[in-house]
Amino acid sequence: MARQLEEQIVGRFPVGRRLRVLDVGMGRGAQALRLVRAGHHVTGVEQDAAMIATVREALAGQPEGVRERMRIIEGQAGDTGVHFLPGSFDVVLCHGVLMDVQDPDALLAGVARMLAPGGLLSLLVRNDDAPAMRPGLSGDWAGALAGFRTAAYGLKRLTSTLAGIGAPLHTWYGVRVFTDTAADGEPLPDDLDALLAVEERAGRTDPYRGVAALLHLCGVRG
User: Fold this and answer.
1) What keywords are annotated for this sequence in UniProt (predicted)?
2) Phi and psi (nearest 5°) for 163?
């Protein structure tokens, strides 16, 4: 997914431009740290104190110039309007957050307001268009049947929502098409490069991307 995000940033902004990035619900800060090391100014919002401590620890090992470009705010994803003015950022990340909030439409509208004109909104969401796929592949038949009854917050609805909040969908990818059923702690395969190449290709190719465990959507502020 990091490669997909980099591809969108490189394709949208001039080379060498230092972007203002907001990472809403930054978690352990993998994307935020990668972007700040690339020269961008990153603000991370996170409510979990343990996660913030993890990011601060990782940041402490970076050069001073990198540390100066990173700002961390303890707060909830829905509070962006409290901390920032509309249009304050060139890129807004909201990865793995929507599935944990009761009103994702309101959260999306709030984070989209943070984008400057032409800004990029990057979302990582659970693929509710195919909720029976993962349990079915794992042999969890009861879970698969329950998945068919899940109310979808999938690609079609997200596309409509993004258009309605002024950040229409620009492109989208599937994430974890083949690998989501791997057990936690399972050792990496010897042919890891081949696996990554297959996932990268599948995430861009129909019909495979449509049944991925996660969707990576990129909208652009009009």
Assistant:
1) Methyltransferase, S-adenosyl-L-methionine, Transferase
2) -65, -40
Higher confidence at residue 15 or residue 100?
Answer: 15
Q: Kindly state the tokens that stand for 168.
A: 């229409």
Instruction: Look at residue 151 in the predicted model and tell me its pLDDT.
Output: 63
CATH class of 2-127+152-178+213-220: alpha beta
Cis peptide before 86 (omega within 30 of 0): no
Q: For residue range 144-196, what is the model confidence (pLDDT) as tens digits?
A: 999 887 767 789 999 999 999 999 999 999 999 998 877 667 787 788 899 99
Beta bridge partners of 175: 214
DSSP single-letter state for residue 142? H
With CA atoms as reference, report the closest residue to 35 among 21, 49, 47. Answer: 21
- Residue that wins the pLDDT comparison between 21 and 105: 21
Tokens 């431009």 sit at which residue? 17
Q: Is the alpha carbon torsion for 92, 124, 203, 150 positive or negative? A: negative
Mean pLDDT of 197-219: 96
| CA–CA gap between residue 124 and residue 75 (Å, rounded) | 20
The pTM (predicted TM-score) of the whole model is 0.92
Q: Is the Cα torsion angle 169, 197, 125, 123 positive or negative in sign?
A: negative
CA–CA dist 90, 157 (Å, integer): 24
- Strand arrangement, sheet containing 115-126: 70-74, 41-46, 20-24, 89-95, 115-126, 214-220, 169-175
